[in-house]
Amino acid sequence: MNGLLDTLRAAVGAAQLLTEGDLTAYELDWRRRWRGRALAVVRPGSTAEVAAVVRACAAAGVAIVPQGGNTGLVGGGVPDASGSQVLLSLQRLNRIRTIDAANLTLSCEAGCVLQAVQQAAAEQGLLFPLSLAAEGSCTIGGNLAANAGGTQVLRFGNARELCLGLEVVTASGEVWDGLSGLRKDNTGYDLRDLFVGSEGTLGIITAATLKLFPQPAAVTTALAACSSLDDCVALLNLARTRLGAGLTGFEVMGRFALDLVARHFPALPQPLPGAPWTVLLEQSDTDGEAAAQERFEAVLGAALEAGCVADAAIASSLAQSQTMWQLRESIPLAQAEEGLNIKHDIALPVSAIPGFVAATDAALAAAIPGVRLVCFGHLGDGNLHYNVQAPAGEDAKRFLAKQEPGVNRIVYDAVVACGGSISAEHGIGQLKREELAERKSPVALAMMRAIKAALDPQNLLNPGRVI
Ligand code: FAD
């Protein structure tokens, strides 16, 4: 292995090859669930250096685990425990290459932090709408490799729909320049879409061309208290009918999820305390502030009259709007403070969600007395985070070890029965690999394996993840 380490050192410079010292930031995932051990952490600073690293690893038959911001939630971006894999950090590829305001596109390197891309677009009066609670540390490469969703999918789609082109280093170390800024390009198979969502198993994304949008003239935010999930769905339909494409966010937060936020972040105000379900609505408008506010008030007034909303609060300032979003974004952080839980990032037809939650809550409560259910998510996209927390006072790690298989069976059987998906936006990683093998159709799995074998015949790119 010393020969490989010497070649890598020569490729990226001695300071960017880490083999000793504290490598926790690279080897331990965000949830603190998976800790691996890397042969080395290598931090290239350019596409050419990434290609040199991949060529060296391919020649030595050594596996590579690509990593961006290490905020993934399915254990896909950390090495295994063997000490034989190279951790390839993309963080130093962090340059915005170009912004084309007339074409509404931005090209940047894969290690750019999402928030920096949003800011670069905003400085030109433009919007890059991908938005998620980890945006201060996740990277564009990670967003695309995981096909991230977030809070604006309802209007703008997920990362896949925001990407026009990619630059990729292949498993053999060649560079594919597919950085097209075209909105139409029907020249054969869509290679870009193969790499988006492939979680580092087919190639290393080194740069991307992204879609931008005009900044909205006004953004308004509100919270609404609903007594049931049926009422939340009725509110969604009403808001969609009245606001059309102006409805850019529709997030639901269950009572226990907000109780966890109150426990761990007591300073955050909760304007609708006690509501069984709280909905966060966001409207983005091309009209001015006053017209937007009026339209929002009319929607919530109609919802109060229809009886699907019991109470509502509209933000009257940017600060209030940010505090409302903070409530939503603090839920994953509050869960992390509470201890490990059994996570399910699932997609369902919106119409099936109330029935799914009622039946699954009941089945879990019967199987595990005292179980605590954290339910929240992007209801407008039919995407729930349905997480199962140990009964109060029970050790979270022991709970996970004992209950995870049984809990997953109950939850995923119900998801499949409703025509849903076991992964909405977090991907498969190592967390759901077995589940995917069990639940994806054999025909689909065979095609996925054929693609993997064709693009990575030595199985060196993030092996053991996804398939
Ligand atoms: P990493 O965690 O570093 O990697 C993720 C995967 O992509 C790994 O398999 C890795 O090997 C691969 N990868 C990374 N970079 C590259 C590259 N350049 N080329 C090829 N493969 C690569 N996700 C959502 O979709 N929606 C949410 O609302 C959301 N909210 C979150 C909130 C919190 C608080 C946290 C911690 C996470 C949240 N996530 C969410 C999950 C996570 O932030 C996203 O999956 C994000 O896209 C990961 O980006 P990253 O740069 O951290 O990738």
TrEMBL record:
Domain FAD-binding PCMH-type, chain residue ranges per copy: 34-215
Entry annotated with the keyword NADP: no
Flavoprotein is among the record's keywords: yes
Gene3D superfamilies: 3.30.465.10, 3.30.70.2190, 3.30.70.2740, Uridine Diphospho-n-acetylenolpyruvylglucosamine Reductase, domain 2 (3.30.43.10), Vanillyl-alcohol Oxidase, Chain A, domain 4 (1.10.45.10)
PROSITE patterns: FAD_PCMH
Stored SUPFAM superfamilies: FAD-binding/transporter-associated domain-like (SSF56176), FAD-linked oxidases, C-terminal domain (SSF55103)
Domain of life: Bacteria
Keywords recorded for this protein, A-Z: FAD, Flavoprotein
Sequence similarity: Belongs to the FAD-binding oxidoreductase/transferase type 4 family.
Name of the featured protein: Hydroxyacid dehydrogenase
Source organism of the structure: Rubrivivax gelatinosus
